[in-house]
Amino acid sequence: MSSETSPANCRGWAARDPSGILSPIEFNRRAVANDDVLIKITHCGVCYADVIWTRNVLGDCKYPVVPGHEIVGTVKEVGANVQHLKVGDDVAVGTCVNSCRDCDYCNEENESCCVKRVHTYNALDQDGTITKGGYSSSIVVHERYCYKIPDTLPKHLAAPLLCAGITVYSPMMRHNMNQPGKSLGVIGLGGLGHMAVLFGKAFGLKVTVLSTSISKKDEALSLLGADNFVLSSDEQQMKAIAKSLDFIIDTASGDHPFDPYMSLLKTFGAYVLVGFPSEVKFSTGSLLFGLNTISGSRGGGTKVTQEMLEFCASNKLYPKVEIIPIQYANEAIERLIKRDVKYRFVIDIENSQN
After folding, report:
1. Helix (H) / strand (E) containing 183
2. Of the residues 76, 85, 106, 298, which has the maximum number of CB atoms within 10 A of its CB?
């Protein structure tokens, strides 16, 4: 973004009404407090949440909304009490920028479960201000909610890990889906689904992609390295892999039946839903007869997020991205709605111009 002087200390792009159309905005970030860091944003991923909270889908938008919660940048200033970060460090900020820091969840570094957690944008912070996200030139964040980016992890590739990555990594670790030789099914092949495939392969799992679109087959097998592809609308293909999967990660947000997928689990299998369909329906038998577990998940706390970043750096596990300037954000969101991206847009904030 431009470095021209301005009465405000931050420039960004915001939606001002439920149309969700983004346009330039100038505003002030808070002063750096003792425990805060000021980050010059270099990149920000584009998440489907940005559609939801710019278009008031849930009816809770506090306009103007500056979206973006997959934030990467460089520390420019630190508060007097900051200990683990210094000026010049490359850091990341995810979906949460505050919490009570005193409950059991916070004490266990599972801040995303805190009932007083504060989302990175469109949320009321504890100082009474409304949070604004990463479609902007800078952000001020308490050091607890900043993550060090390992030197071997390129910044533009780190951005999608802060939501798409941690959303699948966290439940995979919680449900012990890192056991080499086990079998994983991944429903959906978008931003979250492609990360589940990459993590599954890195964990040594046999990965099967389940999709209603045959056009996904080549990319699943050739580009992402999945072991198998099943067209889930084909009953014969589904029957052929019945009771063969130890785990399923369901990333699909559109409404879909659950029983056909539950039938693919082995006894004691685990089914984790990270997508957001309007309802979940399955027969009691699908759950009871197989002694299966079904659970939901969202995001992850500071401990597991930092662990994931280190894991990705060590294993050179990088999301597939398309780099765009901030001026392309509206077109990118339209393409995201149409699922026309492989597999995550990342805004090059640093080199964009207003």
Report:
1. strand 183-187
2. 106
